[in-house]
Write a structure and sequence with these properties.
With 236 residues, the protein is of the alpha/beta class. It has seven helices and ten strands. The strands form two sheets. Strands 6-7-8-3-9-10 form a six-stranded mixed beta sheet. A four-stranded antiparallel beta sheet has the order 2-1-4-5, covered by helices on one side. It is globular and about 50 Å long.
């Protein structure tokens, strides 16, 4: 898998003094306050916090889906703020994968077509090459027999595994997962987490997992907690 999109001489991600302020009428609410964060290649990091603590907001900033009110997010040593919208979108497609609590699969397309979508947007590989790569990843997540099934024909756990394959198909340096097991039963959730760990070991993909589940977080190498807009190392 190609890992040349982000410079190997820099951390995969780095946030410096990131603040995010939302306006609610005349009031301004600081959801994040001076957050510092560094992610190295192959690291697995859990970010914990209560509902409404700003975990998803932080993930959106780290993944270039939103811009901070203050501070900077660096990707491979380059600040998102120095990139055009088009350049940020291209970097997200090439370097990041996203997995959410709800799978966000396109209902009219098969599992194979959903996984292939990020590569189809690049227009770099032939249809055959894209299908072969999507098929390979669906096989890796245990869905070899479900390639032609649409989301409505899959279980919740199977749909989430399709979403994971889609997140990985572009050879990302980092996968952002926002409560990826929050909508799954305990057994399926553990299966998904074991899949994350296996893929992390095989491809050296970094994972940033936002969760409120300490059991999930304990399977990561590093645990951090977001509280009152401040991100800190979780106390043992």
């Amino acid at each position: 898998m190609n890992k040349k999109t982000i410079s190997s001489t820099h951390p995969v991600l780095q946030a410096q003094k990131v603040t995010k302020i939302f306006s609610e009428g005349p009031q301004k609410v600081a959801v994040l306050s001076g957050v510092d964060f560094t992610l190295q290649r192959g690291e697995r990091v859990a970010i914990l916090g209560s509902s409404g603590s700003g975990k998803s907001t932080l993930l959106h900033l780290l993944g270039g889906l939103d811009q901070p009110s203050e501070g900077k997010v660096f990707v491979g040593g380059q600040a998102f703020s120095q990139m055009s919208d088009a350049a940020r979108a291209q970097l997200r497609n090439r370097s990041f994968g996203f997995v959410y609590q709800f799978h966000h699969l396109l209902p009219e397309f098969t599992a194979l077509e959903n996984v292939a979508m990020p590569l189809l947007l690049r227009s770099e590989l032939s249809i055959k090459q894209i299908e072969e790569k999507a098929s390979y990843l669906l096989e890796k997540v245990g869905l070899k027999a479900r390639l032609q099934h649409k989301p409505s024909e899959l279980s919740g756990g199977e749909r989430q595994r399709v979403a994971i394959a889609r997140a990985l198909v572009g050879d990302p340096q980092c996968v952002f997962a926002d409560e990826p097991t929050g909508n799954l039963d305990a057994q399926t959730a553990q299966t998904v987490m074991q899949l994350f760990l296996s893929l992390n070991q095989e491809f050296k993909t970094s994972f940033v997992i936002v969760t409120h589940d300490l059991q999930i977080a304990n399977q990561m190498e590093r645990k951090m907690v977001l509280k009152n807009g401040i991100l800190s190392v979780m106390a043992l």
